[in-house]
Each structure stands twice: as structure tokens, then as C-alpha cells.
């Protein structure tokens, strides 16, 4: 049997009583409100075809620095593969990104677009965050697709910025 030295024991006890750093409040209401504000600005910039505001929501001006990934559901994939057999559920398409998305909405002659959000859930520690929600995309008032969307955000010196967008794509509900 080995005995611990009194100094070793004192060292362990000393570490135990040192003040621990204070952790940021989980889901601080101010952070949650700010992130919900980002979601709302995303929505209104689509409606207003406001490309500069939309682009300003993202962490980088370079679209290759921001993940923008979709995955289609099985029934939609089967429908697409009837005319495009090479179509896949989830594949990286570099030319499909947040800039090309807003470009397609803001271009002259584009039908009015809107993305609606429901069941919004925010999780943050004050420095990083995730937000997820159900969405429906409408073109000229008609739903074109729907699904679930998940973002990651980082808090920068300029506020919260989106660093990744991942979303499922499903056909509109029959009705």
C-alpha cells in the first residue's frame, strides 16, 4: 500500500476549492432573441429580394466557406430520377449555395418567393448556436417544397452569423 504525501493531498484539495470559470448561461434569452431575429431577417430578405441583407447573414462572403447542403426524400428522389437517373439523395453541388439561392430569388422577373418557418428551436451557449425548424418554400404564393432545416451559427464581433445550412427537401403536401 502506498501512502500519498501530505503535499500531494494538499494539491488535490487546493484544486478542488479553486473557483471554476463561470459558464455562459445556456439559451440566454437575449441570445435566443437575437438568433430568432436572424431567422426573421432571412425570411424577410427573401420576401424583399434583399440580396445585401441576406448575404450579410452569413459568416463568410465566400460561399465555399459556408455549408449549404440539401437531401431529398425518397419519394421526391424517385420522381426526379424518372427524368434524371443520375440524381442522388444528398450530393455536394458547389454551385448551389446561399449566393445562388438569393440570386435566383432577386433576379429581375423572378416570381415572388417566401420561406415560412414553424416549430423553431434554438440551442446556444452564447458563442455557438443551432437553430432548426420546419419550413415551406413558396414561389408566387404556391408551395414548391417543404422539409426540416438546421443551421449552425457563430457569434462574431459583428453578431450572430450563419456558418452552415442543412435541409431536407420534400414535395408539398397533397391538398
Detail the topology: elements first, then pairings:
Blueprint: H1 6-17, H2 29-47, H3 51-55, E1 67-72, H4 74-81, H5 98-106, E2 113-124, E3 128-139, E4 142-156, E5 159-169
Unreliable stretches (pLDDT < 50, length at least 5) are 12-16
* CATH level-two architecture: Roll
Rounded to the nearest angstrom, the distance between the terminal CA atoms is: 77 Å
Give, in spatial order, the strands making up the sheet with the most strands.
Answer: 1-5-4-3-2
Total strands: the figure is 5
Task: Provide a short characterization of the protein structure.
This protein has 175 residues and is α+β, with helices and mostly antiparallel strands. The protein has helices at residues 6-17, 29-47, 51-55, 74-81, 98-106; strands at 67-72, 113-124, 128-139, 142-156, 159-169. A 5-stranded mixed beta sheet has the order 1-5-4-3-2.
Would you write up a description of this structure?
- By secondary structure, the chain is of the alpha+beta class.
- It has one domain (25-169): Nuclear Transport Factor 2, Chain: A (Roll), CATH 3.10.450.50.
- 30% of the residues lie in helices and 32% in strands.
- It contains five helices and five strands.
- It has a five-stranded mixed beta sheet with strand order 1-5-4-3-2.
- A hairpin with a 2-residue loop joins β3 (128-139) and β4.
Amino acid at each position: 500500500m502506498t501512502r500519498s504525501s501530505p503535499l500531494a493531498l494538499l494539491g488535490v484539495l487546493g484544486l478542488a476549492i479553486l473557483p471554476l470559470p463561470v459558464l455562459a448561461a445556456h439559451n440566454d434569452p437575449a441570445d435566443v432573441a437575437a438568433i430568432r431575429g436572424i431567422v426573421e431577417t432571412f425570411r424577410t430578405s427573401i420576401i424583399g429580394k434583399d440580396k445585401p441583407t441576406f448575404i450579410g447573414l452569413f459568416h463568410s462572403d465566400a460561399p465555399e466557406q459556408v455549408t449549404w447542403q440539401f437531401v431529398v426524400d425518397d419519394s421526391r428522389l424517385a420522381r426526379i430520377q424518372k427524368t434524371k437517373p443520375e440524381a442522388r439523395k444528398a450530393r455536394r453541388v458547389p454551385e448551389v449555395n446561399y449566393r445562388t439561392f438569393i440570386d435566383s430569388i432577386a433576379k429581375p422577373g423572378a416570381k415572388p418567393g417566401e420561406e415560412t418557418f414553424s416549430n423553431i428551436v434554438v440551442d446556444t451557449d452564447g458563442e455557438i448556436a443551432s437553430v432548426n425548424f420546419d419550413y415551406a418554400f413558396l414561389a408566387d404564393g404556391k408551395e414548391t417544397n417543404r422539409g426540416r432545416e438546421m443551421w449552425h451559427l457563430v457569434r462574431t464581433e459583428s453578431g450572430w452569423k450563419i456558418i452552415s445550412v442543412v435541409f431536407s427537401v420534400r414535395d408539398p403536401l397533397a391538398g
